[in-house]
Amino acid sequence: xxxxxxxxxxxxxxxxxxxxxxxxxxxxxxxxxxxxxxxxxxxxxxxxxxxxxxxxxxxxxxxxxxxxxxxxxxxxxxxxxxxxxxxxxxxxxxxxxxxxxxxxxxxxxxxxxxxxxxxxxxxxxxxxxxxxxxxxxxxxxxxxxxxxxxxxxxxxxxxxxxxxxxxxxxxxxxxxxxxxxxxxxxxxxxxxxxxxxxxxxxxxxxxxxxxxxxxxxxxxxxxxxxxxxxxxxxxxxxxxxxxxxxxxxxxxxxxxxxxxxxxxxxxxxxxxxxxxxxxxxxxxxxxxxxxxxxxxxxxxxxxxxxxxxxxxxxxxxxxxxxxxxxxxxxxxxxxxxxxxxxxxxxxxxxxxxxxxxxxxxxxxxxxxxxxxxxxxxxxxxxxxxxxxxxxxxxxxxxxxxxxxxxxxxxxxxxxxxxxxxxxxxxxxxxxxxxxxxxxxxxxxxxxxxxxxxxxxxxxxxxxxxxxxxxxxxxxxxxxxxxxxxxxxxxxxxxxxxxxxxxxxxxxxxxxxxxxxxxxxxxxxxxxxxxxxxxxxxxxxxxxxxxxxxxxxxxxxxxxxxxxxxxxxxxxxxxxxxxxxxxxxxxxxxxxxxxxxxxxxxxxxxxxxxxxxxxxxxxxxxxxxxxxxxxxxxxxxxxxxxxxxxxxxxxxxxxxxxxxxxxxxxxxxxxxxxxxxxxxxxxxxxxxxxxxxxxxxxxxxxxxxxxxxxxxxxxxxxxxxxxxxxxxxxxxxxxxxx
Length: 737
Description:
Blueprint: H1 3-17, H2 26-36, E1 44-49, H3 50-58, H4 61-65, E2 69-73, E3 86-91, H5 98-105, H6 108-116, E4 122-127, E5 135-140, H7 144-161, H8 179-188, H9 199-202, E6 213-215, H10 216-233, H11 245-257, E7 262-264, H12 265-275, E8 281-286, E9 289-291, E10 296-299, E11 306-308, E12 311-316, E13 319-326, E14 335-339, E15 345-353, E16 360-366, E17 369-375, E18 378-379, E19 390-395, E20 398-403, H13 411-424, E21 429-433, H14 443-453, E22 462-467, H15 469-485, H16 490-508, E23 514-519, E24 531-536, H17 543-551, E25 557-561, E26 570-577, E27 584-593, E28 609-610, H18 616-626, H19 637-641, H20 656-675, H21 680-700, H22 705-734
C-alpha cells in the first residue's frame, strides 16, 4: 500500500474520531504516528504562544524534558523554518497567535467542537497543509492546564509509536560533553613530588580534646600540617587553587599568627576560616566552621499569582493587578511555579539567600494605573515531619514513604524502606518524603530505585577520587571516630580496619598515590511508569541529594518543596586532627562535576514546584488529586474517593517519646518549683530562662521535644513563682500598719 493511500485511510479514520481526547484513543493515535512515518525528534517541533509554552514547561516534567525544539509564536504566520516539520500545535481556536494557525488547519465543525469541549482536553491529528507527509497534532483545551494535558497525551502517544523514549526525553543532568571539559578535569587531578607523612602521624586519636590555648609556634606548626593535608588529601585543592589561593592564604595566616603569643582553639579556628573563605565546600569543616552556607528559600505567602496572557496576575481586595516589575527589573527571576493548598497551579514570589533579604519592591498595574507593593519574605522553619527514620502513610489515598536518613546504623529501618520500592512498582503514584535527610550511604537510594524500576541508576557526575596514604588514613579515621561514638555498629570497626590496611599498603610502597577515573557518566533514561513525587527541603544533603540526582534519570519524577542543601561537588570526607590544637579537619577525597559545568554547592538542587517545606506533602497530594501533577497511569476511582486528611506536624505529639520528654520536663519543673516555693523570685527568673531556652530550641530544632518541654517548664515556673510573688506582695499590703 502506497504511503499516500495509507495516509488517506488514516485521515478518514481521524475524521471519524475527531474531538475525542487522545487518552481514549491512544492506540489509534500511536498507529497514526507510526503509519505517517518520519516522526522523529529532529523533525518534530512544539508550537505554542509564549503563555502556553511557559505554563506547560513550568508544570509538566515531560514537556520540559522533551528533546524537541520549542518554537514560540509571536505572530499568526507559521515560521517558514518549520514548514517541513511535524507539529505539536498547542492552543485553542481563540488563543493568541496559535488560534489563527489552528483555524487554518481545522474545519469549521472541528473548530466548533474544540470550543464546546469546556471540561476536557482534545487532540486532533491532521495532515500538514504546509508539507506533504507531515502531521499536525492540534492539542487544545479551554484553559492552560487542559492544553498542557493535551500536549502531554500527544507526546506520549508519539513516543510510544516511535521508541525508544530516550530518543525523545532528555534526563535532567544530561548535556553534551566537549573536550574543554576533559582538559579542565585533567587539571584538577593534581600530583605532588614529596613524600607523604608517616602513617603514625596521620592516625587520629579519637579521644583527644582541644587544649584551652596553644602557643603561636604550635599554631604555626598546625598550619603547616593543615596545608600538607590540602596538598595531599583534599580533592578540591586544584579546584580552588586556580591562582595560587592556598599559598596566599597560608602566608596571610602565618603572618597574623605572629601578632599574638598564644591562641585559643576557637580563635585559631576562626582565623583559619577567615582566610580560607574562598573555599565553598559543604563537606569541608575545620573545628566548628563549615566551609559553605546554604542559600535558603525565602518566599511570600500572601499573594498567589496566576499566569495570564498579559503576564503574572494577582488580586488584592478584589482588584486584579498585573506584575510590571520587581526591584525595578524583569519580574521573572523572582516568580516561581508553585501549588496552592488546593493543589492548583500558581506562582509564588521568592528568592535564594543565605541571609534575610530586603523586601521585594514590586510594581503592579490595573486599569487605574500603577501601584507599588512591598513584599516581605520569610523562610521555612521546618526540618522533618517525624522522628521516625522510616515511615509509611496513606494521605488522600496516595502512599507516602518517608525516609529521614541513609546512615548505615539505621540499617533495619532502611531495609524496610528499600522493600517499599518493589511493592509500589507499577502503581500510579507514590510520594517519597526525604525532608531532613542529611545523607549517609548511597547504596540505599540505589537499592530503592532499582527496586522500583528494575534498573540501577548510576551517578550523574564526572567522578574521580584521590587514593593515597593520606586519604586512606583519613577514611580509617572517620570510621574509627564513628565506631567510637556508636560502638554497636560493627560495620564501622570493619571499615576502619579495611582502610587502615590500604593506608599501610601505601606506607610499605605496595601502592602509589593515584586518582580513580575520571569516569564520565552516560545518564541514560530509565523507564518508569510510576509517578514519583520527591518531597525535598534545605536539610536534604549528600546521599539525600544522591537520591534526587539518581532518580532524575527516571521517567515521571517530580520534585516538590524547596532547594536542597548543596553538598554536592566534593564528597567522601576524611577526618584528620591537627597535632597541637587537636582541631578536627574534615576534607573530601573525591569530586563530582556536572556535565553542564554548573557549580551547585550551597544552592543545591532545585524543585520543579516551589512549595514551603512544611506544606509540601499536603499540597502535592492535593495537586495529584486535582490533576495539576499528572500521572502516566490513570488514578483509580477508589483512590480519588478516599478522604483527604492533611498531615499535621502536631501529630508528633502523639509519639510516646515526644510525650514522655515533655511530661518529664513538666513534672520536674513542678517538683522543683514546689521545693523552691519559699524563693518565688528565683523560681520566676528560672521560668524566664526556661522560656528563652525553649524558644531558641524550638527555632533551631522545631521537631524535637526538648524545646516544647522547656517552654512548658518555663510556663510552670513563671506561673508558680509569679503567683507566689503576687500573693506575698498582697499579704504585705494588707498587713497591719
